[in-house]
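User: Run a structure prediction on this.
Assistant: Running it now.
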Amino acid sequence: MDGYEKHTETYEITFSYADAKTKVIEVVKEIQNKKLPKTPEKSEEVKTGDTTMILLPIGIAVLTVAGIGIVLWRIRRTKR
């Protein structure tokens, strides 16, 4: 029973059996299972909680490489 909580209450039913001619006894007890709350559907997009701005570290790396390049270029130029 998908979407429902199982009913776990038990009932005790007693009846007397006289002889082989006793008719079949049917007992009907109507129970109601509780409906479980629906779970939200999963979205296609993965949410990791990471809000890092990726452009900032990339920009710093580019500026660092450019700075090292300029320093090496000036060192070579002054040695000649």
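The longest strand covers residues 4-5.
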